[in-house]
Design a protein that fits this description.
Largest sheet: 9 strands, mixed
Keywords: Cytoplasm, Glycosidase, Hydrolase
Strand order of the largest sheet: 3-2-1-4-5-6-11-9-10
EC number: 3.2.2.3
Strand content: 15-25%
Domain Inosine/uridine-preferring nucleoside hydrolase: 10-313
Shape: globular
Bound molecules: calcium ion
GO molecular function: inosine nucleosidase activity; protein heterodimerization activity; UDP-glucosyltransferase activity; uridine nucleosidase activity
Family: Belongs to the IUNH family.
Length: 324
């Protein structure tokens, strides 16, 4: 008798974004997941463009049944000067392909309100996959202090654990985008799984893989092979590599198959100013310090420490090359 497995409900909080687009498509192609909504945030592009791109990607996939809730246009501290990574993803966020505007519209509800609503509708059952700065999640915690206990799990692409960042030596981009929000989320008490660039910098899509996408009959694969050009150019300029890091799709796969990674547990705090703004500092909680520290008494989170990179790439490719 075939086992009936229940699909995992996921909300993807995203700033599309070339690798966000790939993660969203992998999610839509994963039978283990039910995507109940996308929420948008600034990061790779400004929030309004992230919303437009989220709607466009769902229309491309023929999944206009999935709602989009627009997120914050400012940081949790209401800063309007944002770091936008258009030099990584193109000024349109999707490799400068001049896609037509989407026909659909976002919900009237804010991203934070949507997150709180879904957590209340399905307590303990919704996983948020956070692929951008953590402002919307911090706003959800502020809106409903019981949100951390009602949300099932929060899987965060964010941080650089014992390695350099990718914005500067200290900070990874999603945490740097709103470090105050990140510190709120990391210490909110939810079931959190963090995947940093120490993990995602091991997962590389080669140009051979890109060729396979290009030659595929799958519309998802062909779409991605087109927008990936800009991202490959950036990686060649920035890292001198022929290939691209799969930050967002790798994080997405932690929801599909957590056994692709191993994890450790401890307390993460985020530096919110100074030259190390956005730094994530992990306390493994093995030492009892003589002083009271800023990590004392804070809830622990899980942080990924190893990844089966070939298996991750293989699964991503398999999902994208699948027949419709
Ligand atoms: Ca992203």
């Amino acid at each position: 008798m075939a086992a009936v497995t229940k699909k995992k409900k996921v909300i993807i909080d995203t700033d599309p974004g070339i690798d966000d687009a790939m993660a969203i498509f992998v999610a839509l192609r994963s039978p283990e997941l039910e995507v109940v909504g996308l929420t948008t945030i600034f990061g790779n592009v400004y929030t309004a463009l992230a919303t437009r791109n989220a709607l466009h990607l769902l229309e491309t996939a023929g999944r206009t049944d999935i709602p989009v809730a627009e997120g914050s246009h400012v940081t949790i501290k209401k800063a309007t000067k944002l770091r936008i990574a258009s030099f990584v993803h193109g000024s349109d966020g999707l490799g400068n392909q001049n896609f037509p505007p989407p026909a659909g519209k976002a919900l009237d509800q804010s991203a934070a309100a949507f997150l709180v609503e879904q957590a209340n509708l399905y307590p303990g059952q919704v996983t948020v996959i956070a692929l951008g700065p953590l402002t919307n999640l911090a706003l959800a915690v502020e809106l409903d202090p019981s949100f951390p206990k009602k949300i099932g799990q929060i899987i965060i692409l964010g941080g650089a654990y014992s390695v350099n960042g990718n914005v500067n030596p200290a900070a990874e981009a999603n945490i740097f985008g709103d470090p105050d929000a990140a510190d709120i989320v990391f210490t909110c008490g939810a079931d959190i799984l963090a995947i940093g660039i120490n993990i995602t910098h091991q997962v590389l899509l080669s140009d051979v893989d890109r060729k396979k996408l290009e030659q595929s009959d799958s519309k998802y694969a062909r779409y991605l092979s087109n927008i990936l050009g800009y991202y490959y150019d950036y990686h060649m300029d920035a890292y001198s590599i022929t290939g691209v890091y799969l930050h967002d799709p790798t994080t997405l796969l932690a929801a599909v198959d957590p056994s692709l990674m191993t994890y450790t547990e401890g307390v993460v705090r985020v530096q919110t100013d100074g030259i190390t703004k956005g730094l994530t500092v992990f306390d493994n909680t093995k030492k009892t310090y003589g002083e009271i520290t800023a990590w004392c008494g804070k809830p622990t989170v899980k942080v990924a420490v190893t990844v089966d990179a070939p298996a991750v790439v293989e699964l991503i490719m398999q999902r994208l090359l699948m027949d419709d």
